[in-house]
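Support request from a user on the community tier.

User writes: "When I paste my structure tokens into the form, the page sometimes reloads and wipes my input. The last time it worked, I copied everything first. Here is what I submitted, just in case something in the input itself triggers the reload:"
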């Protein structure tokens, strides 16, 4: 329910990308607004204390780089902003966050310009849609309303056409779509993942083991025309929890292969429906190029890849270093990492399925280099402590959330023997406020 219209000047951006204004000394978050704009908003959430949330009703004074006043597509919060302004705002958010949460002096900070994405549209290689009562689509932000498939700007045209065909197909099959209010139905979500060789994995997330007309799906889905591409794997993923929680998924291969392979810089990467892989291949290549510049060849060097996933960053260096240890707690990611070792004929990469915290308790090796790519919440105190005890010569910290990046960098550098040599932001997600950041730390001699 929306109520109380008022006019607001947007002063700055939150570290999550929303515009911030002030009303009666209280902070107001306004999605899809930008600094300097004057907007009429309706209040959508006003607790007695804390942040007020507003919705734009009218833009009185737009930002000079605003391209449109239309509501953005779900997942494209900044699509109404010129790309050069997107980059500037992302850099400002990163600088402000490093200064506020990390207590760093930005004027003396080795922060490099943002590496831009070669593509700013149609760059994604994965998409997840939700089955509703009526159609396949996206949740509108902060609601349970589904936005139908119309024109998805971040995926290639042939994938867009394929999704429309799939929507028509599933409506005709009359398999019950999941209804969260009543916790009934079968089909919850549809996941597509594709590679540059135009191979596609299709995942159907279901409420339980039941999947009606399974034989029809296995026989008919591979026959649906996809211009220039082909379906190579059909997977059922089971989520029995009322809420969407990917950690609860159990995968069953229904047809074809359970993974696809992507080749970047002559390294082949097998990845499954659930295992993480970078969604912007052009920028993923630039990440690997940066790592290759930072880490010098050393046949005696040992590298630890913590939260290593399928080994994306580390196996690219296998031929430069003596030994690589990938530590990852997810069984499916470890399975893909093992496959990547075999595909690339690597014999100096060791895998360990373990939490990083437990790994530190049993580890006996001393690495020269550590890669760490923690979840959004960043590193637990015992992980920071474990890193410092190992005293590697170099630490490469990769982050998708500037708040925990700033906090963890402060903990690693504050009188703890490490200095930040370089921080490079990568625009992995154009049309959004999100930024991927890599930091190189070196031990002070």
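"...and here is what came back when it finally went through:"
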């Amino acid at each position: 329910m929306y109520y109380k219209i008022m006019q607001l000047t947007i002063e700055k951006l939150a570290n999550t990308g929303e515009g911030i204004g002030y009303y009666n000394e209280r902070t107001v978050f306004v999605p899809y607004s930008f600094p300097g704009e004057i907007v009429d908003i309706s209040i959508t959430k006003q607790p007695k204390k804390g942040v007020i949330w507003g919705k734009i009703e009218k833009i009185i004074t737009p930002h000079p780089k605003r391209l449109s006043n239309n509501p953005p597509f779900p997942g494209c919060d900044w699509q109404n902003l010129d790309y050069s302004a997107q980059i500037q705002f992302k850099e400002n958010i990163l600088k402000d966050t490093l200064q506020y949460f990390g207590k760093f002096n930005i004027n003396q900070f080795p922060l490099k310009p943002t590496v831009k994405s070669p593509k700013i549209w149609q760059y994604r290689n994965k998409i997840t849609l939700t089955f509703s009562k009526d159609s396949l689509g996206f949740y509108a932000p902060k609601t349970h309303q589904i936005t139908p498939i119309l024109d998805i700007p971040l995926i290639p045209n042939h994938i867009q056409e394929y999704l429309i065909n799939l929507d028509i197909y599933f409506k005709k099959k009359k398999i019950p779509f999941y209804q969260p209010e009543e916790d009934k139905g079968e089909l919850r979500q549809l996941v597509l993942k594709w590679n540059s060789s135009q191979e596609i994995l299709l995942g159907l997330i279901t409420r339980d083991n039941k999947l009606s007309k399974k034989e029809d799906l296995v026989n008919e889905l591979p026959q649906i025309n996809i211009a220039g591409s082909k379906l190579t794997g059909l997977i059922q993923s089971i989520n029995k929890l009322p809420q969407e929680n990917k950690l609860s998924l159990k995968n069953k291969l229904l047809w074809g292969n359970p993974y696809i392979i992507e080749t970047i810089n002559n390294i082949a990467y097998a990845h499954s429906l659930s295992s993480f892989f970078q969604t912007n291949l052009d920028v993923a290549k630039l990440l690997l190029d940066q790592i290759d510049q930072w880490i010098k060849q050393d046949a005696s060097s040992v590298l630890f890849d913590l939260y290593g996933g399928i080994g994306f960053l580390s196996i690219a260096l296998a031929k430069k270093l003596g030994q690589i240890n990938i530590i990852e707690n997810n069984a499916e990611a470890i399975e893909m990492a093992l496959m990547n070792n075999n595909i690339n004929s690597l014999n100096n990469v060791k895998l360990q399925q373990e939490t990083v915290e437990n790994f530190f308790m049993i580890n006996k090796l001393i690495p020269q280099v550590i890669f760490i790519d923690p979840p959004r919440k960043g590193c637990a105190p015992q992980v920071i402590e474990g890193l410092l005890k190992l005293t590697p010569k170099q630490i490469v910290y990769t982050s998708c959330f500037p708040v925990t990046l700033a906090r963890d960098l402060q903990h690693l550098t504050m009188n703890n023997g490490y200095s930040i040599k370089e921080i490079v932001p990568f625009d992995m997600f154009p049309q959004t406020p999100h930024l991927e950041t890599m930091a190189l730390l070196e031990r002070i001699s």
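Agent notes: The reload is a front-end session timeout and is unrelated to the input. Residues 377 and 413 are 19 Å apart (CA to CA). The first strand starts at residue 3 and ends at 9. Escalated to web team.
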